[in-house]
Specification:
Elements: E1 4-5, H1 15-18, H2 21-55, H3 65-69, E2 86-91, H4 94-102, E3 107-111, H5 120-134, E4 139-141, E5 147-149, E6 158-162, E7 169-175, E8 178-181, H6 182-200, E9 206-209, H7 215-232, E10 240-244, H8 248-251, H9 254-260, E11 265-269, H10 272-282, H11 303-318, E12 322-327, H12 337-357, E13 361-364, H13 370-381, H14 399-402, H15 414-432, E14 438-440, E15 443-445, H16 447-462, H17 476-494, H18 496-501, H19 504-516, H20 525-533
Parallel strand pairs: 2-3, 2-13, 3-6, 9-10, 10-11, 11-12, 12-13
Antiparallel strand pairs: 1-7, 4-5, 7-8, 14-15
Helix pairs in contact: 2-6, 2-7, 5-6, 7-9, 10-16, 12-13, 15-16, 15-17, 15-19, 16-19, 17-19
Amino acid sequence: MAAVVADTAPPVERSEEVLTTEALAFVAELHRRFAPRRAELLTRRKERRDEIARTGTLDFLADTAHVRAGDWQVAESPAALNDRRVEITGPTDRKMTINALNSGAKIWLADFEDASAPTWQNVIGGQVNLIDAYERRIDFTSPEGKTYALRPDAELATVVARPRGWHLDERHLTVDGEPVPGGLVDFGLYFFHNAKRLLAKGKGPYFYLPKTESHLEARLWNDVFVFAQDYIGVPQGTVRATVLIETITAAFEMEEILYELRDHASGLNAGRWDYLFSIVKNFRDAGEKFVLPDRNAVTMTAPFMRAYTELLVRTCHKRGAHAIGGMAAFIPSRRDADVNAVAFEKVKTDKDREAADGFDGSWVAHPDLVPIARASFDAVLGDRPNQKDRLREDVHVEAHELLAIDSLEAKPTYEGLRNAVQVGIRYIEAWLRGMGAVAIFNLMEDAATAEISRSQIWQWINAGVVFADNGDKATADLVRRLAADELAAIRAEVGDDAFAAGAWQQAHDLLLRTALDETYVDFLTLPAYEQLVG
């Protein structure tokens, strides 16, 4: 039997082109074969978190030492993924699809995950948009009358699609009465409709894998790839995957993750914002030494972040994989020259550092930043497609260096708490309206930064933090006052009618629930999704 669209699924224009009988049968096969193992791995996550809570530490795995010592390489990169010096990220709405493909970036991370709220419209509409883009029949007209279309005869960015993480379900699609894992929905529909189409264009079905916490989760994805390629009859190795190292546990298993995916591996990415969220989540009750300061005070030059990124570059190049740098959250403004200048300088500094460290490419969130990042990598790479030959044998990272959170001199501040409340409410409100990538205070925010905000509030309260700038103590009552003040400020800013039309009160309540409840929720998006689908 095929997967079944739930009666509660709202209508989506042209959904019949995506939800064909054959595609739904494929998704059902993926679910029946792999959902049970996914459930086991989610249980294993909880067990590992319990172990971290008990021991207060992490280490490289003893039982996979032979993998780290072995002489092996990942598969050779396909031509379309060999030069990745600039990658633009963003959701798969129609306007972003056109702008990203036209941007001049080598790669577009077409995001069904943190930059996209998983409304049924976004899930299915994004698939329609990608099919239309590959057929070069996509266009868009804004409410203001501005038109967008693919540049004729221009080289378009290569698409690397990011499905949802293993922890998320898709309630609108069921198999045998169970919701299908969101990642299998996103992967399955995209792969089924586009794998052969992409091969005919000299490219392939390429993926970013988010929220991976262990090499066993990478092994599951590899088994999904092997089955999927046989199912539709394309050669093994057609799929290529880049894994985001955005959890602290995955940082201790980089080589093992590449090894599990070695016939399908393309590289690793330094997903810095989720990485910070993962540190807080896993060590939230491990004492003062694991208390992070304000989010914006944790730069990539922090010792523990340097250890993480340098280990990633060394690991990738040792195994023949690409090392891709992280997101610079600063975004330009076409209306404010001062904001624009600051954004350009911040991004240039970030990308210069990554290129000098040995990364083969990096992310930007806005088309205007593509030339900035390209210049940084052009200066190091020249005509070479990458610098995988730079092995970084000078790097030797020990476990304690990855966990040296207390090496930071910065401390939590009252203003940092206020910013966390502001960003949390404003982002969650947009997410509940179906927007996953949101510009807030000249920074591009997605679900990862909202996760940091609410997690830091939780950690600071439970650690009894006293703020460095005013001597106040972090308490639930203080957070409630700040949240009430922010809600009033937003009402004054947007007006009563817009406030009433938004989801501001729900966002306020959800932030407080996930930041103040005694029981810590693993992912903000889990209770948020309950509200999203009603």
